[in-house]
Amino acid sequence: GHWDAPSTAPLAPSRTMTLVDALKDTSRPVFLFGVTPPLEGSSADAIADAADNFVQKSRGLACDGYIVYDIQEEAGRTADARPFPFRKLDDPGAFAAALRKASGGTESVVYKCVAETKSEGEFQSWLDEATRETSAYNLVGGASSSQEYAGPTIQRAAEMLRKTKRGCAFGGVTIAERHAKKGNEHETLCAKTDAGAEWFISQAIYDADMTIKLVNDYGAECERRGIQPKRIVLTFAPCGREKTMKFIKWLGCSVPEAVEAEILGADNPAQKSVEILVAMCERIIAETKQSKVPLGVSVESVSIFKNEKEAARDLFRLTQAVMLDAYGVQWSMRYAIDASSSKRAGKDDKIKRIATVVAAFLAGAVARTKFA
Hints:
The protein is of the alpha/beta class.
């Protein structure tokens, strides 16, 4: 990716910059940390606890926002058995609201599988509630083109979103594996942009070559059309065990045999996956720098296993450093002590001092620096 930094002002984080603003501002990178909601039917206290726990564990990460995924059974995706049994999770919009409250204001990109809603009216009701707290959405279609779905199309859902609330915006998913198979994902991204998409977030990457080709083809297509490319957020997810690897592949992610063997053959597979994915991130940035496609990084922390959760936080910090170094500005991490934070009333009266890491761009005037 390549960004033209503004020549008149430093890239200092703004307290008034919303997550939508950050995603749309292609003069800077963006960093997201992803999570899934708790189980469907969880009590309000359980949802608040889950949000508190996630915020506490990720407070040392300088992220622009979270991602809350909308997990579906995805019947019809493949004939292969699902490695982990499907368990329906709570509403992503509601959990994003809980995360915002627990974190003191951090926003989320809320994924919504619009095809899986039972009707257009149900989707409208969901939007009316979700947009009270959330402005950034990723609209997702059905998992299988061979199935019929009751919910609205992405284009119709986008129209409904635009009418619901000013300031809302949406992005879409991009899948390099689909590009490798059909060869037209770059054109699909342009079509989604025409429908109003402001950014794209990739599926979890384990094959750098596929992603490099997609980004470069998209950049070339945008240049051919005379349009500015939208941001592509590169998503990475650690893997610490064979069952997780099976699930990653079941989801449709391409994993080269050599990569799988290196990870699963390591003494510490989770940390080996971090090492490999950081190198992939670095390579993708280097080999797409001429495309002029702005990039970002997202890391999924969706595992229930402690070593994979810890690896996700390591992966976030390291891919963030790679992206910031490639951007060509001086940067550092600073922490802030928040003495006003406390647990919810009635649970813990002690005031917690929370160190929140914030990304601080130190350059007074940012040079227009391309990747080395």
